[in-house]
Design a protein that fits this description.
The complex is a heterodimer.
Chain A: H1 9-25, H2 30-36, H3 39-47, H4 54-59, H5 79-91, H6 101-114, H7 117-128, E1 134-137, E2 153-157, E3 160-171, E4 178-184, E5 195-201, E6 207-212, E7 221-232, E8 236-237, H8 243-258, H9 265-269, H10 276-282, H11 290-318, H12 326-348, H13 361-372, H14 383-394
Parallel strand pairs in A: 1-4
Antiparallel strand pairs in A: 2-3, 3-7, 4-5, 5-8, 6-7
Helix pairs in contact in A: 1-5, 6-7, 6-8, 11-12, 12-13, 12-14
Chain B: H1 10-27, H2 30-37, H3 45-53, H4 73-86, H5 92-104, H6 109-121, E1 126-129, E2 145-149, E3 152-163, E4 170-177, E5 180-187, E6 193-197, E7 207-220, H7 226-262, E8 264-265, E9 268-269, H8 274-303, H9 308-334, H10 345-357, H11 362-372
Parallel strand pairs in B: 1-4, 2-4
Antiparallel strand pairs in B: 2-3, 3-7, 4-5, 5-7, 6-7, 8-9
Helix pairs in contact in B: 1-4, 4-7, 5-6, 5-7, 7-8, 7-9, 7-10, 8-9, 9-10, 9-11
Classes of the chains: A alpha+beta, B alpha+beta.
Chain lengths: 414, 375
């Protein structure tokens, strides 16, 4: 069951146009194999095709970022176009989001809003084609939820800035060409006022990337160390001291880019045609207990309801509103739902949820989902911080007294 | 967030909402609710008449051929949402949500011609008598018997928890007839029918015990389709109740957030404390999700979609649970004043718990969902 609305005429036309484009770029037999559900043929067609080039194909078409202005590789379009593109990509078993999601979802919109003309020309197209992968250099060991307290320093030296400090939780840092970097340019101003936003070339001397192993055992993230890294002033985004305002654009877009997309293998690589609910049920083979059944039914209900809410939020955005705190509602709910879902699967398996014989892929996936889900309520804004935002920005509740208010960053408690 | 945009009738529904809200602000203020809940009938005849005649509320979703205005579940849900918000006291859910909906899906033209115009005009108050002492909503558990002697049918048995059972002019009774269950129409003042008011925690929603001792009854629809008629009618009733739930839930959230902004303790508004702020953020999240569930089932009902049974159970359980949580947290956030009789919080709390158990508990509906999605 899915929320369905008949396309209005202009939307139907756009969908048809995008489908036509897909037919023109996909190898012969792809769409037919998808439509008929013929797995064998699909696998053959897919293997015979240069999948690595896909990002370049869609990135050059405008469909990779329908919201971006035409002159920078988008369609100057509306949010509903992005929705239709994602739907059709998923239906046709193609990746729903760019491999360069931080570039397309975060860096691009930030550069479009705050960057110079030269920066737009230099970076945007290669973000779309994923020729240059981006990463995000925001969080620090001492600055998580209170990002504005960060202490990585940028000191001006002629027409360059010299960076020293450490960032953490940087995904994709090894392969990234550029990073979005926020650093402190004036420690004697209040914490929000002394920040500046830079584009950091990740191959610069003095940038060191170390993988960070997580509780799930894998290492999606990194620590990034900066030792006298020199960044030319032309890589500054926005004015000196305006870094917080620029970073907020990135953060708002982060919530939009990451809500409504599940960042699993399927989103990045496409491929499976299985209904996600069925895939989930496969992880819970024994569903005879009435308690398990009720728990799963509630999870199903929550998943469906959240889809409708995501749709309503998309519709509200389509009405022209900037991404706002309603993204926070979805983020909080999705993160906790994913924890409930992944835990229910482990519980239903009993000890089989925590121990298995080598090679049992299904058990491994179940356990991995369970462990990985703990990060969902932390990454991209903890649920606690998001609840503050929902309370303050939507419900109009008063803020807590801010002990750093008006105080020079150098005088704050760290 | 409002209902989904991109729907050409969304604006009309918002206009309807304004009209209904204005009407209810006048006729269903807290003072009026408190006055009516203390009466035995539980409603105001002149308000009922105005709602039916001037606003056309009772006939909103009745087809034009039966003197209604021919709208559907989407519009009706707006009315129920607003009534839930104001705790409207009156036999609207019983007459429209239960009885009219059951008649609409009965496939019995004669019965529709006989009763729907009178419901649309506000002349007839109607209800559905299904549950018995066990409070089960499963028709298999029904023991009330319908027996035939010649062309006439007679009912014997006892129905419990009948909404507005003491004031209904028309009672649709679900009874066991020969092999299967069927629906029968009985006049409220029929000979052999005893109607006794029950004690209800929610005084704004009256219930009665109806005892049938050989009461003459008129069968509705074909005998073999009784089961189907009842279950389809209940899907539409669940759609209506889900809308009522989100209206009530939003009102509880509004009350709690207003209070949290104003009430000062320890020198700060209590809404600045994270313990309260996060409770309210959670409530907002639940209420928005519940709205999604309600909008979804209204659409499925309007389209008579294949997913209606799934959507109805999904929405009934989700919105009921959200309403109850909102009502309970509203009391908690208000603290001591929230536990007093003079504050409105308890009225919503009682309505929420009653709605949660009407039409089957949330567990009952989750079991239906489980069956339908391959769990």
């Amino acid at each position: 069951m899915r929320w369905r609305i008949e396309d209005a005429p202009e939307r139907a036309e756009f969908r048809e146009q995008f489908r036509g484009w897909l037919r023109s770029v996909l190898p012969d037999g792809w769409i037919e194999a998808v439509d008929s559900g013929d797995e064998e043929t699909f696998t053959k067609v897919r293997q015979s095709w240069d999948f690595g080039g896909w990002q370049k194909v869609i990135g050059s078409s405008g469909y990779g970022a329908p919201l971006w202005p035409k002159e920078y590789g988008g369609l100057s379009g509306e949010p509903w176009m992005q929705q239709i593109v994602r739907e059709e990509l998923t239906n046709n078993r193609l990746p729903a989001v760019s491999f360069n999601i931080l570039g397309v979802g975060l860096a691009g919109p930030t550069i479009i809003e705050h960057g110079s003309e030269e920066q737009k020309k230099r970076y945007l197209q290669k973000i779309l084609t994923a020729e240059e992968i981006w990463c995000q250099l925001f969080s620090e060991p001492g600055s998580g939820s209170d990002l504005a307290s960060l202490s990585t320093r940028a000191v001006q030296d002629g027409d360059h800035w010299v960076i020293n400090g450490q960032k953490v939780w940087t995904s994709g840092a090894q392969g990234a060409a550029f990073g979005m970097l926020v650093a402190r340019t004036d420690p004697d101003l209040p914490k929000h006022d002394g920040l500046t936003y830079f584009i950091c070339d990740m191959r610069s001397p003095g940038v060191e990337v170390r993988p960070l192993r997580q509780m799930s055992g894998s290492a999606e993230f990194n620590e990034v160390f900066f030792t006298d890294v020199r960044i030319p002033d032309e890589n500054r985004v926005g004015a000196v001291g305006e870094g917080w305002r620029v970073a907020r654009t990135t953060l708002m877009n982060e919530r939009v880019a990451l809500s409504g997309v599940s960042l699993d293998r399927v989103s990045f690589l496409g491929g499976t045609r299985k209904d996600p609910w069925q895939s989930y049920l496969d992880l819970v083979p024994d569903r005879t207990s009435p308690l398990v059944r009720e728990r799963l039914a509630q999870l199903y209900i929550e998943q469906e309801v959240k889809e409708v809410t995501a749709f309503r939020a998309a519709a509200a955005r389509a009405a022209g509103r900037q991404p706002g705190p309603e993204g926070g509602i979805s983020k909080v709910f999705n993160a906790e739902l994913n924890q409930r879902r992944s835990e229910a699967a482990v519980d239903a398996a009993g000890l089989g949820g925590v121990a298995w014989m080598p090679g049992d892929d299904s058990a491994e996936a179940r356990a991995y989902n369970f462990l990985r889900a703990r990060a969902n309520t932390i990454e991209g804004g903890t649920s606690e911080v998001l609840r503050n935002q929902i309370g303050e920005r939507i419900l109009g509740l008063p803020r807590e007294p801010d002990v750093d208010k008006g105080l020079a960053w150098s005088k704050t408690r760290k | 967030m409002p209902d989904v945009t991109g729907d050409p009738h969304a604006q009309e529904r918002e206009a309807l909402r304004d009209t209904v809200r204005t009407f209810l602000e006048r006729t269903s203020s807290e003072a009026e609710v408190r006055r009516l809940m203390e009466t035995e009938s539980g409603y105001d005849e002149s308000v009922w008449k105005q709602g039916a005649e001037q606003l056309g509320l009772t006939g909103l979703a009745i087809p034009e051929e039966y003197d209604g205005s021919g709208f559907g579940p989407m519009e009706l849900s707006v009315v129920f949402e607003e009534m839930g918000r104001s705790l409207f006291c009156g036999p609207f859910f019983s007459t429209v949500g239960l009885a009219a909906n059951t008649l609409l899906v009965s496939g019995d033209d004669a019965a529709k011609k006989e009763w729907l115009p009178k419901i649309a005009s506000g002349q007839t108050i109607a209800t559905l008598a299904l549950t018995e002492e066990s409070s089960s909503w499963n028709v298999a558990d029904i023991t009330t018997m319908a027996t035939r002697s010649g062309a006439a049918w007679k009912l014997s048995g006892t129905k419990w928890f009948v909404l507005d059972g003491t004031i209904a002019d028309l009672v649709l009774v679900v009874a066991r007839a020969e092999s299967d269950v069927a629906v029968f129409a009985v006049a409220g003042d029929a000979a052999g029918l005893t109607r006794e008011p029950m004690v209800t925690i929610d005084q704004t929603r009256k219930m009665a015990r109806l005892t049938f001792d050989g009461v003459e009854a008129q069968p509705i629809g074909s005998q073999s389709a009784g089961n189907d008629v009842v279950s389809r009618g209940l899907l539409l009733a669940a759609t209506a109740l889900s809308a009522e739930n989100i209206g009530g839930a939003q009102r509880c959230l509004d009350m709690a957030a207003d209070y949290a902004r104003e009430r000062v303790q320890f020198g700060r508004p209590i809404g600045s404390f994270q313990a309260i702020k996060h409770k309210l953020a959670n409530l907002l999240t639940e209420v928005e999700q519940a709205k999604s569930a309600s909008y979804f089932v209204s659409r499925e009902a309007a389209a008579n979609g294949d997913d209606l049974p799934l959507a109805a159970s999904l929405a009934k359980s989700y919105t009921s649970d959200a309403f109850f949580k909102a009502a309970a947290d509203n009391i908690q956030i208000h603290g001591g004043i929230g536990f007093t009789w003079e504050h409105a919080a308890h009225l919503y709390f009682k309505r929420a718990k009653t709605n949660q158990l009407l039409l089957g508990s949330s567990s009952h509906h989750r079991a239906i969902v489980a069956d339908r999605v391959g769990i």
